[in-house]
């Protein structure tokens, strides 16, 4: 059941992004798949987050018509980076640390795909790196807001229970 | 302390899980993406990784052999011998092409009085490695894409056709021998000009297919490339018929022995394409 939910959530994140990006320009710079991966790495299991990254990346590749593996590679790396950095650094109530980790992981994912493009002789857009940087900043900002909201909600629920 | 240990164990587990996932994605990509020449990237990467290892080991063994032969044998005689062997090899190829041109010219003159020449540029190479013959009948040579070689470039020696290039890295190429089970080429019998298809069998002999039972084929008949496969130029010597019998179906069962001793070959030439002028231009 858990894995079904994992697959479904990955699929829905991608579909949501495609729909939102089609209607709101800013959503083109929002990597919801990465937010899902970050959520799994932070709030669930870092090991499972690697699989989430792989699966989400593969689905993303399939959705955008790329050869399967580009985004899977990048998102797996990002999942690993987020999982490791979140434990290593003090992220409790340190919004700028969280922002930096997620932005850096997004950049790592984009950069790894760019390197794969070069190695596999695939042409990429001239603005790919610049757009990826912007995407990293937007994604990190949204992720930090979402995680802060989630934690506030959990705290409220916990206080109510007590 | 125990939480530190647990954290380190978790990190190691994460790394151990991440690496196979990354490799899986790379393999997945390489299975989908072909180079412009139509070969899968996984094969090209494998060749690129093994090329320096083969080059180094081949260089070392060649150096040892050279030291032994150069310092313990007559230096001048060896150099002269090599020079003469190279000249003979080149002249054999030239002679073979001239002979085919002459025969074809004579034949066409009888019919249409038209002449033709077969000019092509070649580049020499050494065989640096080979797979065991029962596996894949493949050799590796010390020329690659930086030397102007392309995939499906014909590879020949002074005695005849050796095979074609199938995989390239910058400095090495993989050559599929004509005895390879996956190899096939368009050929014809020199005497009767009957076309057929020559296939490797993984064995030392080749199978000549699609020659009808009614055709006259004798032991000793020379087999040449027909040029119809678009890879090998017309008129290159391949081998001679050693067995010929009527088949159960429509076609004869014919075995061809290559002219080239593929187990002992050490130097080869690669045909790069039509020369701008003159019959044979060596690079």
What is the element layout, followed by pairings?
The complex is a heterodimer of chains A (162) and B (283).
Chain A (H helix, E strand, L loop, with lengths): L1 H22 L8 H12 L2 H19 L5 H19 L6 H25 L8 H34 L1
Chain B lengths: L1 H31 L8 H32 L2 H37 L8 E11 L7 E4 L12 E3 L4 E8 L4 E5 L6 E6 L5 E5 L6 E4 L12 E4 L11 E9 L7 E6 L8 E7 L6 E3 L1
Parallel strand pairs in B: 1-13
Antiparallel strand pairs in B: 1-2, 1-12, 2-5, 3-4, 3-12, 4-5, 6-7, 6-9, 7-8, 8-11, 9-10, 10-11
Attribute tags:
heterodimer, A: 162 residues, mainly alpha, Arp2/3 complex 21 kDa subunit ARPC3, 6 helices, 0% strand, globular, B: 283 residues, alpha+beta, Thrombin, subunit H, 2 domains, six-stranded antiparallel β-barrel, 3 helices, 13 strands
Low-pLDDT runs of 5+ residues of chain B are 110-118, 277-283
- Tell me, rounded to a whole number, the average pLDDT of chain A: 84
Q: Largest beta sheet of chain B, briefly?
A: 6 strands, antiparallel, barrel
Report low-confidence residues of chain A grouped into runs of 5 or more: none
Percent of sequence in beta strands of chain B: 25-35%
- Which structural class do the helices and strands of chain B define? alpha+beta
- The whole-number mean of residue pLDDT values of chain B reads 80
Widest β-sheet, arrangement of strands of chain B: 1-2-5-4-3-12
Domain count of chain B:
2
Order of helices and strands of chain A: HHHHHH
Count of DSSP E strands of chain A? Answer: 0
Please give the number of β-strands of chain B: 13
């Amino acid at each position: 059941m858990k894995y079904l939910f994992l697959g479904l959530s990955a699929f829905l994140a991608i579909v949501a992004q495609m729909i939102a990006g089609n209607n709101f320009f800013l959503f083109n710079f929002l990597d919801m798949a990465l937010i899902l991966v970050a959520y799994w790495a932070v709030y669930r299991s870092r090991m499972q987050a690697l699989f989430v990254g792989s699966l989400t990346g593969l689905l993303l590749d399939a959705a955008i018509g790329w050869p399967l593996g580009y985004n899977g590679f990048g998102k797996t790396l990002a999942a690993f980076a987020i999982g490791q950095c979140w434990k290593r650094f003090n992220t409790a109530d340190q919004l700028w640390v969280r922002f930096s980790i997620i932005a850096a992981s997004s950049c790592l994912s984009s950069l790894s795909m760019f390197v794969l493009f070069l190695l596999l002789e695939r042409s990429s857009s001239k603005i790919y790196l610049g757009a990826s940087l912007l995407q990293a900043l937007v994604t990190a900002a949204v992720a930090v807001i979402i995680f802060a909201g989630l934690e506030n909600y959990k705290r409220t629920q916990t206080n109510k229970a007590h | 302390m125990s939480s530190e240990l647990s954290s380190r164990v978790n990190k190691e587990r994460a790394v151990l899980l991440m690496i196979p996932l990354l490799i899986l994605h790379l393999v997945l990509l390489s299975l989908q993406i072909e180079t412009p020449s139509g070969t899968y990237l996984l094969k090209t990467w494998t060749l690129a990784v093994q090329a320096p290892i083969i080059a180094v080991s081949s260089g070392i063994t060649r150096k040892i052999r050279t030291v032994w032969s150069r310092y313990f044998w007559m230096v001048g005689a060896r150099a002269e011998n090599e020079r003469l062997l190279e000249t003979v090899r080149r002249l054999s190829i030239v002679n073979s092409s001239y002979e085919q041109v002459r025969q074809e010219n004579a034949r066409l003159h009888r019919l249409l009085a038209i002449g033709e020449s077969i000019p092509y540029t070649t580049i020499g190479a050494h065989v640096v490695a080979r797979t065991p013959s029962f596996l894949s009948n493949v050799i590796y040579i010390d020329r690659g894409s930086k030397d102007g070689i392309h995939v499906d470039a014909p590879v020949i020696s002074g005695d005849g056709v050796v095979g074609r290039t199938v995989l390239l890295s910058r400095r090495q190429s993989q050559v599929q021998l004509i005895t390879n089970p996956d190899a096939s080429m368009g050929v014809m019998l020199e005497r009767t000009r009957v076309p057929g298809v020559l296939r490797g069998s993984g064995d030392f002999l080749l199978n000549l297919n699609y020659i009808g039972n009614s055709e006259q084929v004798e032991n000793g008949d020379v087999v040449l490339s027909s040029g119809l496969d678009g890879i090998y130029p017309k008129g290159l010597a391949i081998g001679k018929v050693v067995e010929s019998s009527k088949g159960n179906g429509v076609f004869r069962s014919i075995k061809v022995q290559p002219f080239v001793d593929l187990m002992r070959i050490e130097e080869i030439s690669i045909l790069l394409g039509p020369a701008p002028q003159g019959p044979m231009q060596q690079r």
